[in-house]
Write a structure and sequence with these properties.
Distance between the termini: 27 Å
Structural class: mainly alpha
Bound molecules: fe (ii) ion
Number of helices: 11
Radius of gyration: 16 Å
Length: 191
């Protein structure tokens, strides 16, 4: 994966926090989409890449058996979403400070993480790219397989839902385009 050495360093430091549930694979896939989006959407690599790498580190402080109560089609404990955002921003700050990351970028990265799921309106183009990369995971082959197992939804029903929500969910034209392409591929996948 073509990321800068400084970002690889951040990833290495994030890994211990991502080894919970399926967050490491989720982050790798979201990172791949972020790199793709940065090719055609105007965003700053120095903000977007660390933000996507670090956005979910906060789940580590929440017991694993509670994760699925916080998200998905019927969350019973949505407050945990906020907890993982706030804790994640704290962990991200500590990681970035340790490697002397530029303070202005650090501040923006932490702002993005603090509301990456709960904030309806994006703060910036950087934030839009992070949000779209995170959601595109659901459209990837691996992400869809994992989510179908978690949410216990019939595959066909989930495909209809994901296709219908593209315009509402995605905040960048490239995000929408990639989501549409992925849906076509998923329809061809062998379930
Ligand atoms: Fe995420």
């Amino acid at each position: 994966m073509a990321i800068k050495p400084v970002h690889q360093k951040i990833f290495e430091k994030a890994k211990p926090f991502l080894r919970t549930r399926k967050n490491l694979i989720h982050t790798r896939i979201a990172l791949r989409y972020a790199l793709k989006l940065l090719k055609s959407e105007k965003g700053e690599e120095g903000v977007v890449i660390p933000a996507i790498i670090l956005h979910d580190v906060g789940w580590k402080v929440i017991p694993e058996h509670l994760h699925l109560t916080a998200f998905g089609p019927n969350p019973s404990n949505p407050k945990l979403t906020k907890v993982h955002e706030l804790e994640g921003a704290k962990i991200a700050k500590a990681i970035l400070e340790k490697i002397h990351y530029p303070p202005k970028k650090l501040k923006e990265i932490c702002q993005i993480i603090r509301g990456h799921d709960s904030r309806g309106r994006p703060l910036s183009w950087n934030d839009r790219i992070v949000k779209d990369s995170d959601k595109l995971w659901r459209y990837s082959r691996r992400g869809m397989a994992i989510d179908l197992g978690r949410f216990q939804i019939p595959r066909r029903e989930y495909l209809v839902f994901l296709e219908a929500i593209i315009d509402h969910w995605f905040l960048t034209p490239t995000g929408k385009e990639i989501a549409r392409k992925e849906i076509l591929l998923r329809k061809k996948d062998r379930p």
